[in-house]
Amino acid sequence: MANRTLTDLPPLPPYTLAPRPPLISGVSDAVLQLLAPVVAYWVVSLFFHALDTYDLCSQYRLHTPAEVLKRNHVTRHEVVRDVIIQQVIQTAFGLLLASFDPMETCGKEEYDIAVWAQRLRLAERYIPKLFAVVGIDAISFAQKAFKNYPQLAGAVSGGVYSTRSFAAWEISAATLIYWVAIPFAQFLVAILIVDTWQYFLHRAMHMNKFLYTTLHSRHHRLYVPYAFGALYNHPLEGLLLDTLGTGLAYIATRMTLRQGLWFFTCSTIKTVDDHCGYAFPWDPLQHLTSNNAAYHDVHHQSWGIKTNFSQPFFTFWDRLLGTAWSGGDVSARYMRDRIAAQKKVDADTAADASIVNSPTIDLDKAKQQASSSQRQVLDDKANGGIQILQEEAKAEQEMRQTLRRSTRRKSGFDAMLISDRVSGRLHNRSPTILHADGVH
C-alpha cells in the first residue's frame, strides 16, 4: 500500500462546456423559472378554492364561509386583479434580471466532483495526527487493515493508496456533496435570508404608520385569508417584500436556474399554504416548519395584528424578538367572530339564501367558551385582568362609531375608506390587548 506518497493526487478529468439544454423543450430555463411559481400559485389556490366552494374538509377550516363573506373588506375580483398585477411585475422584473445572466453551461460536473474528491484526499492527511492525539499509531493500524479493508487503510494512513485514481468512497462522498449537500445548504441559507428579509420589512410595515397606511393595510383587508389572496398586496409592497427578498436570496446563494426554479416555486406554494385557511393534520408544509396557516392567521386578526410577523418558512425571529403570539388559547376569540359573522348572514338570508353554506354553530357552547375566556382574562392579573376587557370593549365601540359616522356623510359611502380607517384603529390598539389569555 506504500506505492504512492502523500504528494501524489489523482489527476482531474478534462471537460468540455456546452450550453445546458432546457428542462422542457422549447422553453428556456430562465422563462420556466418565472412561469413555474405563477402556475403553482394558481393550481394550489384553485385546489383550496374548490374545497371552499364545495364545502369539503370543513372540519379543518379556520373560518366559516360566513366570515369570508362578512369580515373581509375586499372582493374576490379585486384580490385576483391585484395578484395578477403583482405577478406581472414579478415576471417583468425577473426577465430584466435574466437578460444580464450569462448562458448556463454543462459538461463540468465530473470535473467538479473530482475537485471535491481531491479536497477529501487532502483532508485525509490530518487523520494520522488525529489518531496520534488519542495514542493510536495510524500507520500500524492501516497496515493491519489493508488486506481486508484497503480503502479504510488508505484513508487512515493519510490518503496513501496503491492506485493513482480516487477511491470509490471518495467519488461517492464527493458526488453526494456536489449533488445533495451543497444544494441543500444553498436552499437552507436562501430560506434564512428570505425569512430575515421578510420579518424585518414586514414588522417595519406594521410599526411605521406611513408604511402601514400606504402599503401594508391593503393586505390586511383580508381579515379572513384564503389561498389566492396570499399575494394580495400593494404592488410596491409586493416588489419590496416578495420579489426583492427571494431575488436577493437567489443571487446571494449563487443558485443555478433550476435551483432557483425550485426555490421560487416552493416559496410560492408555502406562501399560499400559509394563507389557505385550513389547518390540516396531514399537510407536510404545515408541520415541516413552525410557520403554518394557523400561525399566520392569528396575524390577520385584529387582536393578533402586532404578532406573528414571521413568514413564510420559520418563526425563529418572532421567538427571538418576542413578537410571537402569547395570548393563550384563541378558540373563544375565533368562535366569537364566527357568531358575529353568522348573525350578519342570517340577517341577509331573505335577500340571498344561497350566498353562504355555513356549518351550524352551537350557540350555547360558544357562549360557554366566551365566558370561560373572560374568566381566564380576569384571573390573569399579571397581564391586566379586567383592564384588558375594558380596552377591547372601548376599541370595538370606537370602531362602530367610526362606521356610523361614515355612513352619515353626505358626500357618499366609501366602504374601502372606512375599512382602511377601521384597520388603522385596530392596528394602533394597546399591545396589552394582544396578550389577554395567558400563555400559548
UniProtKB/TrEMBL annotation:
Pfam families from the UniProt entry: FA_hydroxylase
UniProt subcellular location: Membrane
Keyword terms: Membrane, Transmembrane, Transmembrane helix
Transmembrane feature ranges: 30-51, 176-201
GO biological process terms held by the UniProt record: lipid biosynthetic process; sphingolipid metabolic process
Keyword Transmembrane helix attached: yes
Domain Fatty acid hydroxylase, residue spans: 187-323
Name under which the protein is recorded: C4-hydroxylase
